[in-house]
Inverse folding.
């Protein structure tokens, strides 16, 4: 046990400096700085010696000075343009953020949440990103042709997009990587499953396919399996529970003979199930239902429990953050596989 005198001496002792480490290790100050900042131009032997001395002296790098040299803030911007009121109500976003935060923790970084909700927010967020406050950005839920796509191409920080960007006609592909689920392949799994059950009049409640690539890809997967499906079996909604309920009602009004429906999100599927129940349709006896996302807080609690397409949302968030630290280009984009999870609705 340390005596009070020793404790006092240590408390009052001068804090070890970079020069102290260099002198004890027998190397230059710049060499110690390169070791501390993780630069590659140092031999393994020198790294081992400097690291040993740092431990002996109890040297702690001056974070403010380190940021001036390395331009690192250990902060990552998470930029989102959520539908109004949905960000903290939708478990998809919560799972995605959980994955991002998990990977940032590995790198000793913190997330800074930035929201695009008002027209002036783009300029504000772009100025913040350009101001040296963060080391990079992950961006998701952007609209097609969103100005931030082109803004990020001009900003000198790494960026990764959540979801394949939906660009306006004639726009160029952004020079950044993205992480997405296999939306088209997952939709094919869902529709093939329904067809394999013997269902012949398979409808779909599609997401806003003119606004989000996930919705466009899921509708494309439906049409891959049913290229001749008439347009009256397709109804667009907004990924909300209320949107799913209304879309299901519209489909039943047009096609009361439908016997299955692929719904492009679990949220919408929960609304569709409510409408089917109100219209006296039994699930799956009269109408089989398959959702998408496998958000267990929804899929396991619907009546009946929802057969749905699983995508690993936390892993998608983790991969977004990992690609950011690897400073990779668009060629490193990742599409996460999907699989069907069978429950009682189909």
């Amino acid at each position: 046990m340390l005596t009070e005198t020793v404790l006092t001496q240590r408390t009052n002792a001068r804090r070890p400096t970079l020069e102290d480490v260099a002198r004890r290790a027998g190397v230059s100050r710049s060499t110690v700085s390169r070791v501390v900042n993780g630069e590659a131009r140092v031999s393994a032997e020198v790294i081992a010696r400097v690291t040993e001395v740092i431990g002996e002296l109890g040297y702690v790098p001056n974070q403010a000075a380190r940021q001036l040299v390395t331009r690192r803030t250990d902060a990552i911007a998470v930029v989102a343009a959520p539908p109004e009121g949905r960000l903290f109500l939708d478990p998809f976003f919560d799972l995605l953020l959980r994955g991002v935060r998990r990977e940032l923790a590995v790198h000793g970084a913190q997330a800074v949440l930035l929201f695009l909700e008002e027209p002036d927010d783009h300029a504000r967020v772009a100025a913040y990103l350009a101001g040296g406050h963060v080391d990079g950005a992950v961006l998701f839920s952007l609209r097609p042709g969103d100005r931030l796509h082109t803004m990020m191409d001009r900003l000198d920080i790494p960026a990764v997009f959540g979801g394949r960007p939906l660009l306006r006609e004639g726009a160029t592909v952004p020079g950044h990587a993205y992480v997405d689920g296999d939306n088209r392949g997952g939709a094919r799994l869902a529709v093939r499953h329904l067809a394999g059950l013997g269902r012949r009049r398979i409808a779909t409640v599609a997401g806003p396919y003119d606004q989000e690539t996930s919705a466009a890809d899921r509708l494309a997967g439906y049409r891959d399996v049913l290229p001749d499906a008439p347009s009256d079996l397709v109804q667009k909604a907004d990924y909300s529970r209320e949107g799913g309920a209304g879309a299901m009602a519209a489909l039943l009004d047009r096609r009361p003979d439908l016997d299955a429906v692929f719904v492009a999100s679990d949220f919408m599927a929960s609304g569709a199930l409510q409408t089917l129940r109100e219209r006296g349709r039994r699930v799956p006896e009269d109408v089989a239902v398959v959702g998408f996302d496998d958000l267990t807080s929804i899929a396991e609690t619907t009546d009946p429990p929802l057969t749905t397409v699983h995508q690993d949302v936390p892993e998608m968030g983790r991969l977004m953050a990992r690609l950011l630290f690897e400073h990779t280009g668009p060629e490193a984009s990742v599409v996460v596989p999907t699989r069907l999870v069978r429950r009682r609705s189909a």
